[in-house]
Amino acid sequence: MTEKIDVCALASLARLEVSNEELTKLEREIPAILDFVQTIQKVAGSAPALAPTLRNVMRADENPHESGMHTNTLISAAPAREGNRIAVKQVLSRKK
């Protein structure tokens, strides 16, 4: 990379306070870092992308229970209810 990088302008854009010593050091280091990034991009760009292997992580339900079997037990344990539903304090309001 032969072009000069304006580290002072980069620091200003990033809203970083950089001392004169740091500016001098960064002016030497940033071109080498960018060259390294270009090398990595060239190598990474030529490798084929692998599709992720998908698999089901859910277990089979071997002993399903009857639907609604535990409903009355759960509702009777709730501190407040409205019919067959557990009543809870409203947290979010709906705008109309």
From TrEMBL:
InterPro entries per UniProt: Asp/Glu-ADT_sf_sub_c, GatC
GO biological process terms on file: regulation of translational fidelity
Gene3D superfamilies in alphabetical order: Glu-tRNAGln amidotransferase C subunit, N-terminal domain (1.10.20.60)
Pfam families per the UniProt record, alphabetical: GatC
Origin: domain of life: Bacteria
SUPFAM superfamilies listed in its UniProt record: Glu-tRNAGln amidotransferase C subunit
Protein name: Aspartyl/glutamyl-tRNA(Asn/Gln) amidotransferase subunit C
